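README: folding subset

This subset contains proteins for which both the sequence and a predicted structure token string are available. Records are stored as plain text. Below is the entry for Dehydrogenase (282 residues), shown exactly as it appears on disk.
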Amino acid sequence: MKSIELTDNNRYLHCIKFEPEAEARATIVIAAALGVKQRFYQPIARWLSEQGYRVITFDYYGIGQSVDKPLKQIKSDIIQWAELDIKTVLDYAKSCQQNEPLIWLAHSLGGQIVALAPNSDSIDQMVTIASGTGYWLKASKQVRWTSWLLWYFAAPISTPIAGYFPGKRLNMVGDMPAPAMKQWSRWCRSKNYLFDNITDEQKARYDDFSAPIRAFHITDDELLQRSNIEALLSHYPNTEKSLTDLTPDMANSKGIGHFNFFRSQFKESLWRKSLLDALQVN
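--- output ---
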């Protein structure tokens, strides 16, 4: 495990690289869900490196270890995470490659925005976990009330006061730069999510994305329904796609939810029996 610091575009990005003992079968970049720190993905990153993969995790600018000043001074939004941060990380991943494939392993937000990166054509395959559109009225029933409180009460009141979104204190999402929260709030209140809020040029990048997508829906996901996953996939029209349901029964578990797929308790079930197969590049 090696810490990497990247400083392109006057932005500080912290990455961690996990090298396999032998020649890498592929280079995998793990792209986090919104507000989730890269350390959350260390168990699966370490396990994948033991299976022969080079793995790179990172924090978007203003999240986790990618903070170089007080958070209220960081004005990054989500589009910049895609167009600047993902671009930088993909360039770094390419510099690590030795002719093996490059795989984008995306959790939630990581699969929503990757096509916006100008160099996303360097990806050979994308695997998404619980990645779909996030219109709040299309979310699962149990979180609609929480979403309403977040978008119409917690976010608009707390963010101007703190100068950033204090999600950790509110036990909602996590700390984030104010512009990122403002942008995400607008997306989640839009029927077609981010696709109602980007330019035609940016939408065209989704048309250009051609890497095969292996998508997984978690059947007890408390945030997204299967229709959310299908809606996102429809915005990648020119790629081979598959969508697979993962159920708690497949892991002899009481529940998986939106986040728990990445916990080590699932390494001999979901990781070995479902993820490894999805990582095979044709």
